[in-house]
Amino acid sequence: MKPLFVYSEAYRIGMAGLEKLHPFDINKYSSIHARLLSEGIILAEDVISPPPVTDEQLRLVHTQEFMAGLEDAKTVARFLEASWVAMFPMAVVESYVLKPLRYATGGTIVACRQAMQRKGLVINLGGGFHHAKPFQGEGFCVFADMPIAISVLRKEKLVKRVLVIDLDVHQGNGTALCCAKDDDTYTFSMHQEDLYPIPKEKSTLDVSLSVGTNDEEYLSLLEKHLPKLLDEARAELVIYQAGCDPIKGDPLANLAMSAKGIQSRDRYVIESCRERNIPVAMTLGGGYSKDAWLIQFQSIRELVTH
Fold first, then answer.
1. How many CA atoms lie within 13 A of 108 on its CB side?
2. Whole-angstrom Cα distance, residue 159 to residue 249?
3. CA 8 to CA 86: how far, in whole Å?
4. End-to-end alpha-carbon separation of the chain, Å?
5. pLDDT tens digits, 2-12
6. Which residues participate in catalysis according to the annotation?
7. If DSSP states are collapsed to H, E and C, what string results for 247-302?
8. Is 162 left (phi over 0), alpha (psi -120 to 50) or beta?
9. How deeply is 70 buried, as exposed, middle or buried, from its count of CB atoms within 10 A (0-12, 13-18, 19+)?
10. Gap between the Cα atoms of 100 and 12, Å rounded
11. pLDDT, tens digit (0-9, with 9 covering 90-100), for 93-124
């Protein structure tokens, strides 16, 4: 079945241009969406616009302390590691920072729900906020979108067993912590060893990578571990965090993958799940090089057209 996409222009953060000071290119999502449309790879009807995550849904994972922190601009600034956010009134922070992140989190919920209903691949052109913890945000992440989506789908009785495959270069510490006591959720993270976050949380399976890991080394490790984990997890849904920051030259990491390597990685994950008839909800995660959006676009194009 043709992949479905989830995206909204409401994902875009705007803070009087100061958002450009942040290492993350918030235009990445919109650039990928625009290119997919302009090249005719997807049509407007292939894209679902999600509603924002609700406070009730947030409380399925996040604590009351966390929810109270969302009312304080300094706290939000700390979660995002963006001190300039604290300069703005809370009403502005809510409208131009938190609201977009609520929509992107809602996008992950919709992607997971649609993946289960369609029994195929659904791609959220955003999300993957894997550093957010029950009691705090960190590492540019505010809402724990993937654990929230799992909790929402469980409440809706759409899924029980879930596997989170996190191939962002940074360990998915927040996801691991959120799911640590959940026997029906497996968490798998392949990440650079000597890199934020330090110390790391414990995933169901962590695979540490050394500086300079290239395509061949990376894909060999993925092919070694992923099939066994897929069989062990017996997942009804895979959530794939497809961060592209393992790319060589990413300013916040030190691996050495190529754009072709990222394409091979993504294709291997999706095909491994398809072989087992496991639906996949894909989120885009990190990527901080100037052409991160293009690398992810090219990989998504390969998934859709081949």
1. 34
2. 38
3. 26
4. 12
5. 899 999 999 99
6. 131
7. ECCCCCCCCEECHHHHHHHHHHHHHHHHHCCCCEEEECCCCCCCCHHHHHHHHHHH
8. beta
9. buried
10. 6
11. 999 999 999 999 999 999 999 999 999 999 99
